[in-house]
């Protein structure tokens, strides 16, 4: 039993071209995907430097509070974007008891340099 690529003699012209094209695309795909992924994070003209961006997670008691807080964060330019994730369940210990509450999650994307001001605003 022979495993591997068929010989050039067994492939017809179109099949050989398709095989070569597939191999070339596969070789270059990894680098392309890696580059696209890094550039997507750096957003257009900025150059991404490790450690310059942060993500913060904040829970809110309801949608109204979440929307007001998210809008204020973006209006004050403390973050580029705030995602609101509705209806999460939080399980935590409070005063020696295990508690469970429905909350709304804010996922906040910002510059690391703005984290102290963001924390102060949220408080």
UniProtKB/TrEMBL annotation:
Membrane-spanning intervals of the chain? 15-33
One GO term under biological process is: response to metal ion
Q: Which InterPro entries match?
A: Ion_tolerance_CutA, N-reg_PII-like_a/b, N-reg_PII/ATP_PRibTrfase_C
Question: Record keywords: Membrane included?
Answer: yes
Alphabetized Pfam families for the sequence = CutA1
Q: Name one GO molecular function term.
A: copper ion binding
Which keywords does the record carry? Membrane, Signal, Transmembrane, Transmembrane helix
Family, according to the entry, reads as follows: Belongs to the CutA family.
Listed under subunit, the entry gives: Homotrimer.
| The protein's name | CutA-like
């Amino acid at each position: 039993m022979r495993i591997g690529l068929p010989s050039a003699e067994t492939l017809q012209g179109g099949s050989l071209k398709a095989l070569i094209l597939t191999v070339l695309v596969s070789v270059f795909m990894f680098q392309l995907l890696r580059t696209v992924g890094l550039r997507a994070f750096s957003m257009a003209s900025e150059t991404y430097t490790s450690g310059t961006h942060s993500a913060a997670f904040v829970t809110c008691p309801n949608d109204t509070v979440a929307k007001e807080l998210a809008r204020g964060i973006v209006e004050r330019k403390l973050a580029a974007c705030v995602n609101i994730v509705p209806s999460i369940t939080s399980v935590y210990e409070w005063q020696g008891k295990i508690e469970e509450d429905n909350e709304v999650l804010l996922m906040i994307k910002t510059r690391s340099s703005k984290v102290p001001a963001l924390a102060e605003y949220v408080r």
